[in-house]
Write a sequence for this structure.
């Protein structure tokens, strides 16, 4: 397996970034982009929080790492900088494309404007955009998920296990994407058990996206909900969600993870026994599939959607304590079947 090269970026130092990218993959002399070995190099540019968030970004990395092992891909990673704007992302994606990476994948909706700017300049390079369909193009693959469906199942589980009839939802930043998580979760709770109070809190508002990267904010929000009686808390907040899990676990209550199966994340091992389940998004699979499509000479483009029917979203069952709750599992399985059959229509907004 080839070693994945990690590119750190600070501010908008585009020259340094370009040099770093060139060092890891070779520089293209034209703006056409592409890779000389038909997909032999691929890159991901991380969302806020970067690799090590135990959640969204780590799931993307898992897909790149799998491609390295199984497809003989040389992978590169690029980290975000604190408080960066679209120009930083444009420079990052440009450097990665010039280095011959194909595909170049922006992890998160924040990359939408940058990909819309850069993709037309590299028509032979495929650009992956995760969690956004607002920007499209002939060489753009929009990798999106039915987050509300998985969140509905989490709501069913939360309603079944709560003893205080109070549960919590913590969103990292109040954006349309994260409100999909909220909508599904609240609906799942309400459809399962009447009278359950769902406390909803967002950590930051756009343009402040720090709610995805600051565990202390997640910890404080969870503590507030715990103090108000919540005994199950679901956080869709990236790295900040780890703070929520810590606070909830230390209180002896149930946490519900997001994006990755957080029960199995090494960085959260101290709290795993209190991670009831996680709403997983197959980000790793989406990343791998896009890289493979380029490698095979048939690059994906347009909207590629993952839902419950193909395990693109799911509710993890790694915690033995969860799988032993037979009535909870039965309720979750019934809800999943009803969603697949169209009997339950899950809302995408509160």
């Amino acid at each position: 397996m080839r070693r994945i090269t990690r590119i750190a970026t600070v501010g908008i130092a585009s020259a340094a970034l370009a040099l770093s990218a060139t060092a890891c993959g070779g520089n293209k002399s034209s703006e056409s982009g592409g890779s000389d070995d038909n997909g032999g190099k691929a890159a991901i540019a991380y969302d806020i929080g970067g690799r090590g968030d135990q959640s969204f970004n780590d799931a993307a990395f898992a897909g790149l790492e799998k491609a390295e092992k199984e497809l003989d891909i040389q992978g590169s990673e690029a980290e975000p900088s604190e408080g960066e704007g679209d120009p930083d992302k444009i420079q990052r994606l440009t450097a990665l494309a010039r280095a011959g990476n194909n595909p170049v994948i922006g992890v998160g909706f924040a990359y939408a404007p940058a990909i819309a700017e850069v993709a037309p300049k590299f028509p032979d390079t495929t650009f992956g955009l995760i969690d956004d369909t607002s920007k499209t193009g002939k060489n753009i693959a929009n990798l999106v998920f039915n987050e509300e469906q998985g969140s509905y199942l989490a709501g069913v589980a939360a309603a079944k296990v709560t003893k205080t009839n109070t549960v919590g939802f913590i969103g990292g930043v109040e954006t349309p994407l994260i409100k999909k998580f909220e909508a599904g979760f609240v609906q799942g709770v309400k459809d399962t058990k009447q009278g359950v109070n769902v406390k909803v809190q967002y950590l930051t508002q756009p343009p402040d996206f720090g709610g995805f990267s600051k565990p202390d904010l997640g910890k404080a929000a969870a503590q507030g909900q715990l103090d108000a009686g919540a005994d199950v808390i679901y956080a869709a907040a990236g790295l900040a969600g780890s703070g929520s899990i810590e606070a909830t676990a230390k209180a002896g209550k149930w946490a519900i993870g997001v994006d990755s199966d957080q029960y199995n994340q090494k960085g959260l091992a101290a709290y795993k026994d209190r991670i009831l389940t996680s709403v997983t998004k197959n980000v790793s699979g989406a990343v791998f599939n896009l890289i493979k499509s380029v490698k095979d000479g048939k690059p994906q483009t347009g909207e590629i959607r993952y839902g419950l029917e193909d395990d693109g979203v799911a509710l993890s069952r790694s915690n033995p304590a969860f799988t032993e709750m037979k009535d909870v599992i039965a309720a979750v399985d019934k809800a999943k079947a009803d969603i697949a059959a169209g009997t339950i229509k899950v809302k995408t907004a509160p």
Remarks:
- Residues 8-39 have pLDDT under 50 and may be disordered.
- The chain has eleven helices and 13 strands.
- The first helix runs from residue 14 to 25.
